[in-house]
Amino acid sequence: MQSANRMEIGVYSLADLYPNPLTGKTISAKQRIEEIINAAKMADEAGLDVFGVGEHHRLDYAVSSPPVVLSAISQVTKRIKLTSATTVLNTVDPVRLFEDFATLDLISNGRAEIITGRGAFLDSFPLFGYDINTYDELFHEHIDLLLKLNEKELVTWNGRYRPSLNAAEIAPRPIQQKIPIWVGVGGTLKSAERAGRLGTGLALAILGGDPSLYKPFIDQYRESAAEYGHVPENLKVAVTGHAYISKTNEQAKEEFYLYHSNYWHHLNLQQGVNKTFSREEFDQISGKESALFVGSSEQIIEKIMRQYELFGHQRFMAQMDIGGMPYKKVVENIERLAMEIAPVIRKETRK
After folding, report:
1. 242 - beta bridge partners?
2. CATH number for the domain including 42?
3. CB hemisphere CA count around 317 (13 angstroms)
4. In a domain, 2, yes or no
5. ∠ at Cα 164 (159, 167), nearest 5°?
6. Is the pLDDT of residue 54 over 60?
7. How many domains does one find in the chain?
8. What digits encode the pLDDT tens for the residues 277-316?
9. Who's near 145: CB < 8 A, 6+ residues apart?
10. Which of 69, 173, 176 is nearest to 113 (CA)?
11. Which InterPro entries match (predicted)?
12. Residue 80: closest CA among 12, 34, 29
């Protein structure tokens, strides 16, 4: 399956505040957000298609409110689409979420999108008074309501975990007829099936390994969508993942290893595991046949196109700024993605 036009290319940030492994210094949340806004402006000027910002509720991440940051970005950009990456849907009120992104859509002149997910951390459950034992039920109920809010301006709805709505006015309405809504999927076929059943987009996180191992997720998504009568042309698949681009494959691996290893070291510590990738392990997971997008521009093009042959996806989004990576290197990566990779991918995937 191929995209109707050509693949969209974008960038996203989760705004981690990890120390630079070379200097040991950690930048402030203020500087991190300023750098993200500048990166988005640069991505827009360079002609990339989409920019995403993630949500976390921890001191080692700088962004807890994607629509606020995306609104700031909207004022320094002109055409790039603006999305959450992702919104932790279990622990946010769907009405407030929709109204925030509808407002962003008005401010940005119709560029807002939402990628929903269940999040990698559980901090938001006690923070906002939700029961972790209702993890799945909350997501199911909240996505159901969010989709109804996106459909019409007067909503009647009944649920278990939120007060009912009776002909409630949902305002403001976005410029777009509907805000594009995606479901972010990490490692469960159940999530892919849900996205297909609901007819949302599917944003698949691929952080390594053999790309072919992820094809069942795409197949499950499309089979489920067909079973529930969704039009194939309306189904969108995005592949997201860590990326680092340099002049040669070896230089890319040499430069990215410290930041990649540092990122996973801190992430694993948060999960109670003291584990770091060795250089040998990193070389294995960043090889030519791996899904990890590390290498020269030519190798990244080959990896994206190999996955395109497997998935027929419509969007690729790269996360570059991980593990305390300095902004200068992020800038270099966005330039290479926009100038050396995106034109080739768009040409090869244009129908």
Report:
1. 319
2. 3.20.20.30
3. 29
4. no
5. 125
6. yes
7. 1
8. 889 999 989 998 999 999 999 999 999 999 999 999 999 9
9. 94, 95, 157, 159, 162
10. 176
11. Bact_Lucif_Oxidored, Luciferase-like_dom, Luciferase-like_sf
12. 12
Q: What is the DSSP letter of 76?
A: T
Question: What confidence category does residue 3 fall into, taking pLDDT thresholds of 50, 70 and 90?
Answer: very low
Q: Tell me if the bond preceding 172 is cis, omega within 30° of 0.
A: yes
From CA 345, how far away is CA 349, in angstroms rounded? 6
Find how far residue 48's CA is from the centre of its chain: 15
Residue 26 pLDDT: 98
Residue 146 lies in a domain: yes
pLDDT tier, 29 (very low <50, low <70, confident <90, very high otherwise): very high
Query: Does the CA dihedral 265-267-269-275 come out positive or negative?
Result: negative
Counting residues of the chain whose pLDDT is more than 70, the rounded percentage is 99
Q: Is 27 part of a structural domain of the chain?
A: yes
Question: Cβ atoms within 10 A of the Cβ of 2, count?
Answer: 14
**Nearest-10 crossing angle of helices 189-198, 135-151:** 20
For residue 140, is pLDDT > 50?
A: yes
Q: Quote the domain boundaries for residue 165.
A: 8-349
Q: Is residue 131 part of a domain?
A: yes
What integer best gives the mean pLDDT of the chain? 95
Phi, psi (deg, nearest 5) at residue 201 = -75, 165
274, pLDDT greater than 90: no
Angle (CA) 270-101-153 rounded to 5° is 135
- Contact status, residue 345 vs residue 316, Cβ threshold 8 Å: yes
Ramachandran region, residue 166 (left: φ > 0; alpha: ψ -120 to 50; beta: rest): beta
Does the pLDDT value for residue 143 go beyond 60? yes
| DSSP for residue 146 | H
The pLDDT of residue 270 is 83
Residue partners of 192: CB distance under 8 A and separation at least 6:
185, 202, 204, 217, 218, 220, 221, 224
d(CA 85, CA 148): 21
- Return the biggest CA–CA distance within the chain: 60
